[in-house]
Each structure stands twice: as C-alpha cells, then as structure tokens.
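Need N-acetyltransferase's 3D structure for a figure. Predict it.
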Amino acid sequence: MTDLVIRALDESDAQLFDALPDPLGVGRALAHVVHRPEWKRVALRDGRVVARAAWWGRPGDSEPFSLNWFDVAEGEEEAGAELLRTAPYRVEYQLILPRNWREDPEAHAAGQARLRAAEAAGMRLLVERYQYRWTPECGLPARPGRLVFRPEPDDDVFFRLLRRIHSATLDAHALLDIEEGGLDRAAQAELDYFRACDSPREWWRLAHTADGEPVGLHVPARIHAGPCVGFIGVLPEQRGHGYAYDLLAECTHMLAEQGARHILAATDQGNFPMAAQFARAGYPIVDERVHLVPGPADGR
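Structure prediction for N-acetyltransferase:
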C-alpha cells in the first residue's frame, strides 16, 4: 500500500473535500454550516482522497469548537485515524447519524467505521444524544399554567441555580465538567454557552411555583443553526412533578412568539425523563449524535 499524504486544504483546493461519498447524509444535516477551508484536512493515497475531516467554530473563534464531519473510504479506517492523530486540534467529535441508524445496515456499517477510526486515534465515547427539530406543523405544546416565569438580570442567581441543578444531573457533558473542575466549572460552562448564543440576555427565564418556590430555569436561544432550546433545568428537590415539560412548553412558546419557524433541541439518550418530555411536547427526533472526546494528551 502506498504512503499516505495528509494535508490541510485552502481556498484553491477546497473542492477535494467533496471527493468522498456521504452515506450518512452529514452534508445535508450541516447544510446551514460554513466550514472554513483551512479547518478542513484530507488524507490522500495515490492522489485519491481516502479520508476527510472538517472542524467547525463560531465566527471570531481562533480555534475550532468541534469536529462535526469525518469520513473514511472503505478499508481506510487507519488512514482516517492517522488524519485525526496528526491534526492540530483536540476537540470533541460529534458524529451525525440518521435516526435509528443501527437498524439500517449501510448506516450502521458507516457509523461503526467512523467510530473505530476515531477511537483508534485516541478518542473515547462520551454520550449518544437525540437531535430534535420542532416546526409549527408539530403544534404548540399546551401550557399547564402551574408556574410563574420571570426574567432575572443577575447572572449570579443563574449561576447558583445551575450549581444546584447540576448537583444531581444526568447530562454527560455536565458530568464531565464536574469530574474535571467541580460544580463551579459545570455552572460556568452553561453560562458561557448562554452568553455565546446570538440571542438577547433578556430571554433567560426563572420559574417559580404560584407560592414563590423556585423550580428551575429555561433559556430560549438562537445559535448559528437558528432558534433552539438552550437549556431546561429543574432543581433536584422539585423533580418528580413533570416540571421539565412546563419549562419546555414555555420555552417553545417564547421562541414561536419571536417568529421561530423551527426550533432545535437535543438531549442525552440516557436522560429518559427529558426525552419523554420532548416527546410529550411534540418534538420529533430528526437524527442522532454520538459524541466522542479526546483522550489524554500523552496517549495513556
């Protein structure tokens, strides 16, 4: 087998990225995403593209935020692994997959090939998630009317509530933040995300019972892909009453009132309570995501 050539692309040869087929429909799922040519890399053998990867970042980012497009030709998993090993970026990989991909032989084979290549490059599985997309045709979820929602201008109030919410969380990304830096890091990561969204700070909402007891918070947001459910969180002592649905319904109404023609959302597949509330609120699953994170820098 001939030697592998791995290189970054630029404006002059960006078309090389399109040389591989797209069996998982990643290009369709990322139709709204702009990848910078310099954050695309390919592996070539005898001048033929056998693996490709594209990293994504927000406008103004100096480094990519995530890897969200990675393909390998049949029999070239090691080439794909080498492409990732030699890349200068150590960020999360979001493998985009069709809904129920394990039941489709072609999608299952393609997904497993990419997972094997990423794991051979030192990445490890973090979590599998459902991706939702609400549209007006789904119908607005009914508002139960049990909670009172209000804005809160003090970020410290949100920070303290986020610490309490994440003290008993099922969210894998929050658990990773807690493992690496404690509850403060997990709460701060959420606040940083809220602030990075292209939506007004005034949209953030606290939720209370009619008696004034705090219940949780929701954050309607707008990201590069459009309106989204930025966050839904219920305090541990208030769980078991289905309040996550109330928060989700209110969040949906707020975004619809702002003119949203679609609303994106996601949750971990293992977060059964939240997945049930998305189903109850009429949010259909449009695809699945497998999230992998880089292993230790020293390879151990």
